[in-house]
Amino acid sequence: MSIAPALADPPARGHGLRRAPRRAPHRARASAVRDWQAAYLISTWLAASLHRVSPGDLERARGARDIVLARQCAIYLVHVVFGFDRMTTAALFGRDRRTVERACAHIEDLREDAATDRGFDALE
């Protein structure tokens, strides 16, 4: 099962970056593509494992509450931990930049709880 098939493809010959599922973050070198792939795959795997859902479930447009929370966690990890900007993070997940803002704000609110904060500290 492939988590992000368009991200796994090699760069198009002479054209920089192949387009991601909905919109490419921007044209870049192949090393940047590998960084995006790694950040996306690591964050989705960690979030899915933490919330006991399938990594493939995070790609769906909608989902149950646990899937949405896992997706928000993955978005938070890519944006905050890996340091990608909102537009790049949104493009990786096929979402809008405002979704990234809301997801990060929601996770920050959850981190007010000491146990949840320790869990995220361990992930970071």
Report on this structure.
60% of the residues lie in helices and 0% in strands. It contains six helices and no strands. Helix 4 packs across helix 5. The chain is mainly alpha-helical and 124 residues long. It has one domain: Chromosomal Replication Initiator Protein Dnaa, Chain: A (Orthogonal Bundle), CATH 1.10.1750. The chain has helices spanning 5-8, 30-51, 65-81, 86-93, 97-110, 114-123. The radius of gyration is 14 Å and the shape is globular.
Short description:
By secondary structure, the protein is mainly alpha-helical.
Count of domains: 1
Average pLDDT number: 77
Runs with pLDDT <50, length 5+?
8-20
- Structure class: mainly alpha
Q: What's the CATH architecture?
A: Orthogonal Bundle
Could you say which overall geometry the principal axes of the C-alpha atoms support?
globular
What's the CATH first level? Mainly Alpha
Radius of gyration: 14 Å
User: What pattern of helices and strands is seen along the backbone?
Assistant: HHHHHH
Largest sheet: none
The H-level CATH homologous superfamily, spelled out, is: DnaA protein, C-terminal DNA-binding domain
Termini separation comes to 26 Å
